[in-house]
Structure formats: structure tokens, C-alpha cells
Design brief:
This protein is α/β, with parallel strands linked by helices. It is built from 15 helices and 20 strands. The protein folds into 4 domains: about 10-145, 3-Layer(aba) Sandwich (Alpha-D-Glucose-1,6-Bisphosphate, Chain A, domain 3); about 145-245, Alpha-D-Glucose-1,6-Bisphosphate, Chain A, domain 3 (3-Layer(aba) Sandwich), CATH 3.40.120; about 250-325, 3-Layer(aba) Sandwich (Alpha-D-Glucose-1,6-Bisphosphate, Chain A, domain 3), CATH 3.40.120; about 355-455, Alpha-D-phosphohexomutase, C-terminal domain (TATA-Binding Protein, 2-Layer Sandwich), CATH 3.30.310.50. The protein has helices spanning about 20-30, 45-60, 75-85, 115-125, 145-155, 180-185, 210, 215-220, 250-265, 275-285, 300-305, 325-340, 345-350, 370-385, 425-455, and strands at about 10, 35-40, 65-70, 85-90, 100-105, 140, 165-170, 190, 225-230, 235-240, 245, 265-270, 290-295, 310, 315, 355-365, 390, 395-400, 405-410, 415-425. It has a 6-stranded mixed beta sheet with strand order 1-5-4-2-3-6, sandwiched between helices. The longest helix is centred in the last third of the chain and has 28 residues, at about 425-455. The two termini are about 25 Å apart. InterPro entries: A-D-PHexomutase_a/b/a-I, A-D-PHexomutase_a/b/a-I/II/III, A-D-PHexomutase_a/b/a-II, A-D-PHexomutase_a/b/a-III, A-D-PHexomutase_C, A-D-PHexomutase_C_sf, A-D-PHexomutase_CS, Alpha-D-phosphohexomutase_SF.
Length: about 450
């Protein structure tokens, strides 16, 4: 049974994610690991139920449990490193409220590596779990994490500010932490959607531009210096500058990649397959190198390449603080950068090159995604022949072209969709490439569906 996608286990409640899954996975984790497990949840309506089932499974196979309850995922990762031998987060991150999921962490705060996920899946499928005898069953103890985690972030960032910050918590788990961290830094904080509600009444939890565009106008009306938006479990971060302009995900990654490479006098940056050429430009100019990896594997990339920084869109890892995605460290360092170097709009304009990017999804049944991507990838390879400088197949097909344009077609690891991403140095070039790539994928889906109905 395939459990893990690009970011843990995720899916529709009762269809893929059930209390039985959480219970049995808890037993598998406790058979695979020993000692103490730190367990936490996001604010989804089903998360308490799943957390309790997970705790039961962990206890049944002999682990002690530290229950951190409602906290963001970065805080769970930090707490796992500080107090546990394993960590479990009940969350579906940015997925719709109908979904839920599970992320599993090692004792150092890294998410399970790919090979560990495979081993855990095999153990789960076998059902060969350790069963603790009555006198071996451990306890559940509450764990208060938030204040200590805020203190750790403040110590790392080491900066006080008087910036005015607009914070949008998406009614997610970040709401219990982010406003307080920002105020501890000295910021003047205006919050929206900052009460936890598993129905996500304020907006969709994914902080992509179309879901948070209203924050630009609100920023201008309020006269803030920075806008920060998070997703349901607060590992993702999206940003608007002081003019109310959305900062593209790749520009934010490029900004931090440049910062770390300059600090280290070189080094390797690992970024996901769907990131763009502006990152390569600034990293190479600063004396570093870029390595691209599959989505959902920044921790694998740090381990395998000795990276000083890792990222994928909205998700930044700061290895000096910890080997997990951490939006709170990102916001703290970004505030320090603005205070030291000027308004964010000016920093981006002066330091980050501009490219034109378009992303769009094509709906596709899960069982057809692989076939569709293979069909579309091969057709695009033929149509782009002569322009292709490099082809990457670590996650779908990515074609790096001779003019620094690139085209990516990949299956979503969490949803029934195929993702199409195109970037180019000009809008005209981008639009032409996107029309080609998106049309090719749509035709591939239609053909695959027709073949399926025919069978």
C-alpha cells in the first residue's frame, strides 16, 4: 500500500486517512522507533480524533508519548529534536478542510527520509507490530512547547524591530504562535484570520496568490511594512512587500539563497524541481551552486549534498537553526533583512533578476497521473527538440532550455492533478511555452481517460 506522497501522508478523511490508519501507523512507528514520541496536531476538525488514535497506537507498541497538542508543524519538529526520539504531526497542511494527514519526524527534527518511508510502509502493510505487555505500556504527558520555541527563534534571529506587520494565519495552527513571536520581536502586528477554525472560514489554507490577493490592497490601506501569510500548519509562508505587491515564491527563495551563499563564501543550495532560473543566477553570481531535487525532499537534499540552504515554493529550510521547513525563522530573518537593508520592494528590485512564470494544474485521476506525465513529457521532448539544454526526470519532466526558459510537467504527490509550470525571460516567450505545455497535458489526460473508458 502506498502511503507517503511528497509531504507525508495526506488525503480525504474516511477515504484514505482514518482513525484505523492512525492507530496502525502509530503501532508501526513505535515498532520502528523506540523511546519518546512527540505528537501534535493542526486545527482541523478531525485532528483531535486522529491524534488520539495515533497516541493509542504508539502506546500499544511501547512508546512514551509527549502530547504537544495544537501547535504548528515547525514547532513540532523543533520539539522533537529537543525532547523526543520521534515526532508525529497530524495535519493536511494546505489541503482542503475535508482532508487530513500525518507527517513523521526523526529525533533530530528531519522528516522521514525516502528510504525510511518505504520501510515504514512495508512494516505497516505487514501488520507485524510490537505489542507492549500490560506492564510495558508507557504514559502520555502534556508538553508545553510554544514559549520555548518562540524563545529559540528569537535567540536565533537576534533582532528587534518596530516594523508594522500584517499577519494572515489562514485560521490555522500558526495563529497560536506567529502574532506572539512578532510582538516579542517588537513588531506592531495587525492580524486577520488568526483564530483557529478547522473549517477555514477566512480563506483557502493554501497561501498561493489567488487565495490571498486581497492582502495587497489591505496592506496599502493599513500602511504596513510587510505582509506574512501562512497555511494550515504554518510551514508555508507567503509575503507581500510594503507596496502591497506579492513577492514571488522564487524571489523569496533567491533572496535567502543569496544571503546564505554570501555568508558562507560559496556552498550548495538545494531547491525543488519546480523552482526557477532567478535562483541559479544569484547563487552562481555569489559563488555557490544549485542542485535540484524532487518535491518534498529538502531534508534528503541537505543530507545528500551538504546544503547550506534548502527550499521549495513557500517552504524554506534554515539548516543552521534546524533541518526542517520553518516559516517562523523565515519571517524573523526577513524582518531583520528589511531593517538592515531597506524596504523589501527595493531589495527585490535591486538584487533579484526578473523572470515570468505561470503555474496551472490539470485535473487527472491518481491512477492515470503517471501515464499522462509520461505521454506529455515525451511529446514535449519532441516538440522542444533543438532548444533543450538539459532534461531532468527526477519528478516528471523538466526541460531547461537554451535561453534559461524551462518547462515542467509533473504529477502532484498529494492531489489528483498534474502540475504544469513554465518560466521564461519574457512574457511572450512564457505564454507561448505555456500554451504548448498546458495543451499537451490536457490532450494527454483526455486520451488517457478515453483509453480507460474503452477498457
Amino acid at each position: 500500500m502506498k502511503l507517503f506522497g511528497t509531504a507525508g501522508i495526506r488525503g480525504r478523511l474516511w477515504e484514505k486517512v482514518t482513525p484505523e490508519l492512525a492507530l496502525n501507523l502509530g503501532m508501526a512507528i513505535a515498532t520502528y522507533k523506540c523511546g519518546k514520541a512527540v505528537v501534535a496536531r493542526d486545527g482541523r476538525t478531525s485532528s483531535v480524533m486522529l491524534k488520539n488514535a495515533m497516541i493509542s497506537g504508539l502506546l500499544a507498541s511501547g512508546m512514551e508519548v509527549l502530547d504537544a497538542d495544537l501547535i504548528p508543524t515547525p514547532a513540532l519538529a523543533w520539539a522533537t529534536r529537543e525532547y523526543g526520539d520521534a515526532g508525529v504531526m497530524i495535519t493536511a497542511s494546505h489541503n482542503p478542510p475535508t482532508d487530513n494527514g500525518i507527517k513523521v519526524f526523526n529525533g533530530d527534527g528531519t522528516e522521514f527520509y525516502v528510504e525510511q518511508e518505504r520501510e515504514l510502509e512495508a512494516l505497516y502493510s505487514s501488520g507485524d507490530f510490537r505489542k507492549a505487555s500490560w506492564d510495558e505500556i508507557k504514559t502520555v504527558r502534556p508538553l508545553d512547547v510554544i514559549d520555548d520555541y518562540i524563545g529559540a527563534v528569537l535567540d536565533f534571529v537576534d533582532h528587534e524591530t518596530d516594523l508594522k506587520v500584517l499577519y494572515d494565519g489562514a485560521n490555522g495552527a500558526g495563529s497560536v504562535l506567529a502574532p506572539y513571536l512578532l510582538r516579542e520581536m517588537g513588531a506592531k502586528v495587525v492580524s486577520v484570520n488568526a483564530h483557529v477554525d478547522g473549517h477555514f472560514p477566512g480563506r483557502k489554507p493554501e497561501p498561493r496568490y489567488e487565495n490571498i490577493a486581497y492582502l495587497g490592497e489591505l496592506a496599502r490601506e493599513l500602511g504596513v511594512d510587510l505582509v506574512i501569510a501562512q497555511d494550515g500548519d504554518a510551514d508555508r509562508i507567503a509575503v507581500f512587500d510594503e507596496r502591497g505587491n506579492y513577492v514571488l515564491e522564487d524571489s523569496l527563495i533567491a533572496l535567502f539563497a543569496k544571503l546564505y551563499v554570501e555568508e558562507h563564501g560559496g556552498g550548495t543550495v538545494v531547491v525543488s524541481i519546480d523552482t526557477g532560473s532567478r535562483i541559479d543566477e544569484v547563487v552562481e553570481e555569489a559563488g555557490g551552486r544549485v542542485v535540484r531535487i524532487p518535491l518534498g525532499q529538502p531534508h534528503d537534499g541537505i543530507r545528500n549534498h551538504g546544503a547550506i540552504f534548502a527550499a521549495e515554493p513557500w517552504k524554506l529550510v534554515h539548516p543552521k537553526f534546524g533541518p526542517w521547513i520553518d516559516s517562523f525563522v523565515t519571517m524573523g530573518l526577513l524582518i531583520r533583512m528589511i531593517d538592515e537593508r531597506g524596504p523589501l520592494s527595493r531589495i527585490i528590485a535591486e538584487e533579484i533578476p526578473n523572470y515570468y512564470l505561470t503555474k496551472k494544474n490539470v485535473k487527472c485521476p491518481d491512477e492515470l497521473k503517471r501515464e499522462v506525465v509520461e505521454r506529455a513529457g515525451k511529446e514535449l521532448m519532441e516538440k522542444l527538440d533543438g532548444e533543450i539544454r538539459e532534461t531532468l526526470t527526477i519528478s516528471g519532466y523538466r526541460f531547461n532550455l537554451s535561453d534559461r526558459s524551462w518547462v515542467l510537467v509533473r504529477p502532484s504527490g498529494t492531489e489528483p492533478k498534474v502540475r504544469v509550470v513554465v518560466e521564461a525571460p519574457s512574457e511572450r516567450r512564457r505564454d507561448g511555452l505555456f500554451e504548448l505545455a498546458y495543451g499537451t497535458v490536457r490532450r494527454a489526460v483526455e486520451e488517457a481517460m478515453k483509453n480507460k473508458r474503452g477498457n
